[in-house]
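INTERNAL AUDIT FORM
Audit reference: QA-55
Scope: verify that the stored structure record matches its stored sequence.
Auditor: D.O.
Record contents follow.
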Amino acid sequence: MIKDIDLSIIELVVFDFDGVFTNNFVYVDEHGVEQVRCNRSDGLGLKKLKEININSYIVSTETNNVVQARAKKLGISCLNAIEDKGSAVKDLVKSLNIDLGRVMFVGNDINDIPAFKAVGFPVGVADSYNDIDEYILFKTIRLGGCGAVREICDMIYSQYIKSGKLNV
């Protein structure tokens, strides 16, 4: 479990969107407009990461503009319509001059495996598909779209504080 993992060295957290920020459901109206359900508490968690100067991004294969809209509301950067998340994460990390070993990727499905393989801290949400289990360090307690993002942020923040890197 996470007790043996030092999350205080993380410099960047990259999140998948569908199944992580959402419960992986999609609502479609009679005009074909898609909507998703997100958890408001995730925004407070992301603010904690900003407080300790840890960047966060969304990297998603989804092409729907709802991903960009949610990212904008949360105040984090977003790359969507990404086919190869592993390459996207590597390019992002290179542009930020961060060591891949200090990056966490949070996902839920097989299209996240290239990103899991690229980073030092691959994590799945509680309701992730078992196909990813061999590629991740642990799963969250909370389900995707039900506070999993907040849980990750709280874990990192807590370890960062306990490490003495920030006094609060």
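Auditor finding: record pair retrieved intact. The first strand starts at residue 12 and ends at 15.
Action required: none
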